[in-house]
């Protein structure tokens, strides 16, 4: 099951960390720690192996992968010895990491993206390609009537005015080229009615949004705990301090707002009400990719007695995200093979702001994921 | 479904807080916050209501309940206005809180305990009595051959030498008197083969051990999170600072050891391995019943990158425990009514060190509990 | 040494807590915990006693002091029994808490304020009055040329257009009436060249700004520690979560900015450089006056090894501020008596944003304070 | 001022980190971060430079310095590039790191130690040698009458039975050989009346005990803050989690007790009373040299309102200790040159458990240190 993994933002931290990791695991130099599909309960023949993944992608910068790998090693995100060990193989991937096409109309750009995907598929004789967006988070786009209607969208894309934000254009291009699309960022991606129509028309699955790698992950187990114990959460406040490329971008108010909203959604969904308090994201360049998040939760116990819990999370964002990219590629490939179309609600386990009407408690998301992996196995027909 | 709730340690903090709370809720003066069975998903006609509970119990001290209530109010464990409001009703309970019988042999003591239970039952025309141990934690008893054999135990109890620790004697007496028994402490309770035989012989259910109210509760959601994300926990260390009666007793090394062991069990059970690190319990008188627990977890992410999470829990122990006592009484009564015998594994949700081979992840324990509540409803036949 | 303590914002939390405390201490019902001048090293005959303070003030609301006291007790800021015990004496203070005068011109308003001060002085035969501003924090005012010139200011005050923010008008009125003025808030207060001229002209001392009661207090001992150990602080980020009247006001961006700036000043002043990171203030109504602040400091050790310290402060803001109000009144009275004029730099110990070129390390501020108290003793001539 | 720095425990983490650092700073490869004497306020010509230090020492293991350096680099305690850069110079030091002599009597051992010091002095034509103990912490020795009397001690040392623990024997040998001695560990060192007599007889200074590098450092600024604000500390509890060689040794109850006692001393000394609570040290191998300490302080504010502060310190112990070793060597050499004899109380800034009747607040210790550095300058006469 040779599977292409086409990354939008292929020269970024998450992307390159996932490449180094996959190559190191394949070479037997590292354990697949953090790869959810490698835990005993989820291992399945219905999934392509990590070794079956072939990397390619688009980016708007041209930093060599090797140089990015060195930067990641220096920052302590990946071990230096692994960055060095996979250097040659990484060089091989360079051919498949293309500059993002820019054309006169968005329609043309989409066709150029599709052409890149086609070349990638044939060069490597891939069974399928999964496109995953790990590029810079965009601000929410202004609404446009064509977002809700596929025919109108197709027409609008041929005009001079851009109608889709880059993430949605990538989704449009991927789906038009027969490739499932997953958005790891909080950007729009495939989350437009017209793109849902397109996915269904083409019999393709899609997934998102916003990888759940730190504070929100902890929230998604703590909030259900309060709910199940019938304890009343009064306030939940948090702050995320981070540097790095992602942090710099999130310092922009619009991107920040998109992200912060995505981070709070788990509370009403699991508690059934909205406690007071906000989640902040603060850019502190010097912290780099090592994020520190602090949350304070105050709650009422029996007879109104006030109690509190606070936690500090200190994690390396790219190292938390990268193994999930491998998981998502493998799962989406298997879902596609099993004939699934539309939003993949079983991927809620991976996202802060999952698609569809899904559980937000991590434990339930895990069960949904396990059931889906089993179902892929049953549905799969040899190819 | 008039249900007796007989508390061993009835003049202690947990016991009296549960009484004040039940009376205040019944009187419409307080919400049932922290009562698990009052959350929408678990409400069921198969359970006795909080208002159906009738309180009684044993203790070795004679502090009036009213005085204890005032102490609890002063310490901020219950609101002063509630302690005052239920004063009269609490006075009424005094008749049913008896000094723990002391007799020449443990057999005789057990019969005296049984007689107290009998009188309680008839005075209030109770459908059934659930006995719950909330007395001071004991050290683990020395092993004795009679612990494994009911006939030998019955014989030994008639000798001069004590053969059972107080909690197990209470369990023996309760079961012999036809009452289900639950241990909220880490003490021995019904956890002896001979007592299991007795429970089955009498067709009675029993439950335990060690109410899960703070640090271990958080552990039981965080540890599964690491497991499901396939992150490798390297160390998990914790310290619990608490005063109060329970804290003073836990300052004794033997009781401390019993408790600390109980607190770590969740890690191997959910992770599949034992990370480095210990859990400490430190007595700091001035903190009273407001416990502060701090835990540090260090873990490996992708490619071995080191990360950490720490949390501080600041909770009022008695206020966390009391509503669970009400839940356990109601559940055990319903289980008894539904004909259940032997260890109630569905109560794992409530305990640090649950009986039987059960899940240790809170979310799974919650599902088992919900399934059990549904089953009680189906099985129940009016009695 | 009968000393009037005239509070701008006399019906607010800080003001009323300081009244309750002074009355309770005077009645022997409470210890002077938190009163700096009551520590053995600072006790001095040169200072008026807590019992020598007579309370009065202005406010723009009319909530009875007794009602405010009940609210403070309910919120756990002062013990209920003390609020009740001083009820009658508090009622006596009502006569001296006047509505803030409002007149056609600011000049007229200032004269009306002065008249209130005069009546207060004669009614109680006071040796002197210290005016302290504990009213709501204002946004920074727009600059005005009259701020720098006393004659121009006097002229401008008789015009229709307001030229001073309320805190500066209060300072002008106090100084004009011969009363020293202290600003416990970050508002403008006496911090204008024209008012400095006025103070010197009248031979009066003044002080400020912004009481140092929580996170900044801790900063003022931690930052010098890093400096003295020659450790390089790379980032210092913090968040303050608070509700209460002050919190609600600080939710306004302009007031928030004034406060946040004041909170960071200690870092460059003690470290000699500005680390990355910001201090946030977030309003969370439910937390009331109990503020939680969290700070993360990352620093370089020997050979660049990265280290970190984080702290969580959980304090009751009004209870931290109130004893300092008593201290400031007593110190300023003694300074006045000792003939001091202009900015009281020895009060830096109490402020986040102290006047003048002063040390910002708490330990040095403490020494300056101790030296000043000694000097007051020497300078004092009986009156 | 060519100064020998003779380290007892010269192959341990602190020792080798201090060597690598000194060599790297000398070579212009690293900044002297963490070296107190390099801060602008303390720089002085009366002190030997870091470049004037010549390393030697004793150890009981024979791990090559180069190998230890590699281990330290791998553990992230020193940067790999520095460990590599100083490799050759480190090799040169090997000649001066000798196996600890073992002889028939302790007297003979002491003479052999003295002989090693003599050879070190002449080989490098040193002006003086400072001996610093950075070896494994010992349990407290049993008392012995000869500890109080120098003549008795000299006699006892010639007997078969050991009379001094290793640290005190090293101090005896150093002082006898005319070398000042400093103990960075909580071991006995020169802290015996007989050794004080010896130091004075020989006109030598000595110093100690127990380097202050983490939790106690923070305590020594926080505790004075509470005292100066007249806030009443009720409880102060802490836990230190660490691995590494030092951690492993501290897992031994006797060494642990010595250390824990040393860590709490700052509280009564600065507060004037002993709050409730203990300090724990827990060995967690996997944490290595990166210690995490957590402290909870609860305190009373005005009118008894309860408040709390907690802090988490995450530091690299050897990287915190190493620069202080360089400082101590330079200071002690200057003190010796200035003719100081007996305990160097001005070194209190560096120690958890300083010698003599000295201030325990860090700020006051800093002032004492600064004054001493100035005095060395004045007293110094070229030699
Ligand atoms: N790391 C995590 O834990 C995590 C979790 C959730 C979401 N995310 C999201 O993942 C994304 C990537 O994070 P990162 O840390 O790798 O950021 P990064 O800044 O290192 O990488 C982003 C890459 O995207 C490229 N890019 C920007 N615009 C592009 C476009 N229009 N087309 C193609 N490439 C484009 C950039 O040049 C850059 O190479 C971010 O949006 C982030 O919010 C990350
Ligand atoms: N509060 C919690 O969160 C929590 C959680 C888990 C377990 N527990 C356990 O619950 C128990 C009660 O806690 P608490 O805080 O109420 O303690 P407590 O000290 O306030 O009360 C214990 C009571 O038991 C009585 N007692 C002692 N020995 C007895 C005996 N042999 N027979 C009858 N009564 C006896 C004592 O006199 C006292 O009144 C403890 O064992 C504790 O470890 C409490
Ligand atoms: N509590 C602390 O720890 C602390 C520390 C530093 C500074 N402060 C400052 O102290 C001030 C008081 O805090 P608080 O918690 O008591 O606030 P609060 O809201 O309880 O009280 C403020 C009072 O000022 C009154 N007021 C508003 N405008 C006025 C005016 N123009 N003239 C007279 N009165 C006026 C209000 O009606 C109110 O009664 C705030 O500015 C706060 O920022 C407090
Ligand atoms: N690192 C810190 O922050 C810090 C702070 C205060 C005190 N200390 C103390 O410093 C000492 C050294 O710490 P470390 O982390 O380097 O420990 P370490 O275990 O790495 O090194 C100790 C060295 O001492 C050697 N040694 C043992 N007994 C000896 C003896 N009798 N004579 C000569 N050498 C002997 C050992 O072989 C080892 O090489 C410890 O006692 C520790 O408690 C360290
Ligand atoms: Na914390
Ligand atoms: Na923390």
From TrEMBL, chains A, B, C, D:
Keywords, sorted A to Z: Isomerase
Source taxon at top rank: Bacteria
Enzyme Commission number(s) from the entry: 5.5.1.4
Entries under InterPro entries matching the protein: Myo-inos-1-P_Synthase, Myo-inos-1-P_Synthase_GAPDH, NAD(P)-bd_dom_sf
Limits of the Myo-inositol-1-phosphate synthase GAPDH-like domain: 214-318
A GO molecular function held by the record: inositol-3-phosphate synthase activity
Root EC class: isomerase
GO BP terms, alphabetized: inositol biosynthetic process; phospholipid biosynthetic process
Keyword Ubl conjugation: no
Gene3D superfamilies, A to Z: Dihydrodipicolinate Reductase, domain 2, NAD(P)-binding Rossmann-like Domain
Family statement drawn from the similarity comment of this UniProt entry: Belongs to the myo-inositol 1-phosphate synthase family.
Protein's UniProt name: Myo-inositol-1-phosphate synthase
Organism expressing this protein natively: Thermocatellispora tengchongensis
Lineage: Bacteria, Bacillati, Actinomycetota, Actinomycetes, Streptosporangiales
């Amino acid at each position: 099951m040779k599977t292409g993994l086409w990354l939008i933002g292929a020269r970024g931290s998450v992307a390159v960390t996932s490449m180094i990791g996959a190559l190191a695991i394949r070479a037997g130099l590292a354990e697949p720690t953090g790869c959810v599909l490698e835990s005993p309960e989820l291992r399945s023949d219905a999934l392509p192996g990590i070794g079956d993944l072939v990397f390619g992608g688009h980016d708007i910068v041209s930093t060599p992968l090797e140089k990015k790998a060195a930067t990641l090693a220096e920052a302590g995100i990946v071990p230096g010895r692994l960055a060095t060990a996979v250097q040659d193989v990484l060089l091989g991937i360079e051919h498949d990491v293309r500059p993002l096409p820019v054309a006169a109309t968005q329609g043309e750009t989409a066709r150029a993206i599709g052409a890149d995907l086609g070349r990638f598929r044939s060069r490597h004789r891939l069974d399928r390609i999964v496109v995953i967006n790990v590029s810079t988070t965009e601000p929410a786009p202004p609404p446009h009537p064509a977002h809700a209607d596929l025919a109108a969208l197709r027409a609008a894309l041929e005009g001079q005015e851009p109608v889709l934000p880059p993430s949605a254009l990538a989704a449009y291009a991927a789906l038009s080229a027969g490739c499932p699309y997953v958005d790891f960022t909080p950007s729009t991606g495939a989350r437009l009615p017209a793109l849902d129509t397109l996915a269904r028309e083409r019999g393709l699955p899609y997934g998102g949004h916003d990888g759940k790698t730190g504070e929100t992950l902890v929230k998604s187990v703590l909030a259900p705990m309060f709910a199940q114990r019938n304890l009343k959460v009064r306030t939940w406040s948090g702050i995320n301090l981070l540097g790095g490329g992602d942090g710099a971008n999130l310092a922009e108010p619009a991107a920040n707002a998109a992200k912060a909203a995505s981070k709070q959604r788990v509370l009403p969904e699991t508690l059934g009400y909205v406690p007071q308090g906000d989640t902040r994201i603060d850019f502190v360049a010097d912290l780099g990719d090592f994020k520190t998040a602090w949350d304070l939760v105050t709650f009422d116990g029996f007879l109104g007695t006030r109690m509190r819990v606070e936690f500090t999370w200190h994690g390396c964002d790219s190292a938390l995200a990268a193994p999930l990219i491998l998981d998502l590629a493998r799962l989406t490939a298997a879902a596609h093979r099993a004939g699934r179309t539309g939003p993949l609600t079983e991927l809620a386990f991976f996202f802060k702001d999952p698609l569809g009407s899904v559980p937000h408690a991590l434990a339930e998301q895990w069960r949904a994921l396990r059931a889906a992996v089993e179902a892929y196995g049953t549905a799969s027909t040899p190819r």
